[in-house]
Amino acid sequence: MNKTILLLLLITSQIITFAQKFEANYEEAKMPNYTLPDPLTFNDGSKVHSKKDWDKRRVEIYTSFESEMFGVIPQWQGTVKSTILSVKGDALNGIAKRKEVCLEFANGDQKLKISVLIYLPKNSKKPPVFLGYNFDGNHTTTTEKDILIPDSWVANKTEFGITDHHANEAGRGAAQSRWPIEQIISRGFGVATVYYGDVDPDFNDGFINGIHPLFNSKRDSTSWGSIAAWSWGLSRIMDYFEKDVEINARQVIVIGHSRLGKASLWAGASDQRFAMVVSNNSGCGGAALSKRIIGETVGSINTAYPHWFCDNFKKYNTKEALLPVDQHELLALIAPRPIYVASAEGDHWADPKGEFLSCVYASPVFELLGAKKFQAMEMPPVNTPVTGTISYHIRPGKHDITLYDWNCYMDFASKFFRIK
Ligand code: GCU
């Protein structure tokens, strides 16, 4: 047998082994029996009775997520400089003020620039602001002609005209269905977005590009991956908001779809300045319980995206039962701040029921901290939001973020924040 055939056979057998190992299960009947860790029981078995106990227990849970899943974010020793790149007083046909702000991170001779696109309603003062990453560049979120196109690495997408990892004019407005900016502004909210690849390009590069090399730290099995880097970036934007007199930094709603929903959850857990968190179809590693092993699993996510989490997380490939935490505890870390989790009916990969159950099992922590109990035990019908400090909906359709989703998030935010 010649070498090429041998190599092909080897690759095929590895693909088959991978497929068998991580073949997705979508049936509850085939789900293993699983036990979820109790967020209100300390690691030593004693119970959490008070808010004061919870503060200690919260540290235990947070530390487990850090060292076993997202990775530890090292101390930042560099500088951050903000520069206003452009201001337009009459954006979106006069209803909004628009700004583009550059944050430049520097440590020694290493530098990284990110560009934040901000829209603020002209008729409300210091508005609450939705802050979330976009997938393909700020210019894809709106058809407004003059928004900067990122020069960082972007994923190839023929529908956006990208074939060489460089964004271009063809993508302008291509993701606007995910960013109903005019509707958001019309309801009195601000909205800010950043291309996530500005902070860390989403491919497995050994952490030599993006923000990671600007930290002077050696990597080990607990070192941070890309999701932690993206959440760190959200906190740096929050630092900027605190200095911007036009923004109400106490009412920032951190929002994300899918992998960016995982990042918004970790940002909300890591940085308590975020007043509210929205997780849209965040799935495995986000709101969905890992121990159910439905849809995407720890093994499949770590294999397809080895750079998202810390290396320790790989210990749990096909061994979810051993995980010391599960994702309801990630939601619990956000308590008692309001959180909205949303699923899509056709998004089986993200395990909608697992996302819903996280809300159910996070509820006792919210209740301990004085919030109302999550108002459902069974999944609600489609388009019927369960509302409260923990809110949830499932809508028909596929993995996406739609105007329906945004309208629910704006209704939710309006209950907690008054628009002036
Ligand atoms: C993949 C990945 C998911 C992720 C999604 C997305 O499907 O497996 O974990 O949420 O991409 O970000 O769109």
Describe the structure.
This protein is of the alpha/beta class. It has a single domain, classed as Alpha/Beta hydrolase fold, catalytic domain (Rossmann fold, 3-Layer(aba) Sandwich). The chain contains eleven helices and nine strands. It has a nine-stranded mixed β-sheet with strand order 1-2-3-5-4-6-7-8-9, with helices on both faces. Helix 6 crosses helix 7. The chain is globular, with a radius of gyration of 21 Å. The protein starts with a helix and ends with a helix. The site of alpha-D-glucopyranuronic acid has 8 residues, from helix 8.
Give me the CATH superfamily.
Answer: Alpha/Beta hydrolase fold, catalytic domain
Report how far apart the termini are.
Answer: 76 Å
CATH topology: Rossmann fold
What composes the largest sheet? 9 strands, mixed
Helix content: 25-40%
Counting DSSP E segments of at least 2 residues, the number of strands comes to 9
By DSSP (H or I, 4+ residues per run), the number of helices equals 11
Structural class: alpha/beta
Low-confidence runs of at least 5 consecutive residues: none
The rough form would be described as globular
Keywords:
Rossmann fold; 420 residues; globular; alpha/beta; binds alpha-D-glucopyranuronic acid; 9-stranded mixed sheet; 30% helix
Brief characterization of the structure:
With 420 residues, this protein is an alpha/beta fold.
What topology does this entry show?
Layout: H1 3-21, H2 51-70, E1 79-90, H3 91-94, E2 96-107, E3 110-121, E4 129-134, H4 181-186, E5 190-195, H5 196-199, H6 226-243, E6 252-257, H7 259-270, E7 276-280, H8 298-304, H9 327-332, E8 339-344, H10 352-368, E9 390-395, H11 403-416
Parallel strand pairs: 4-5, 4-6, 6-7, 7-8, 8-9
Antiparallel strand pairs: 1-2, 2-3, 3-5
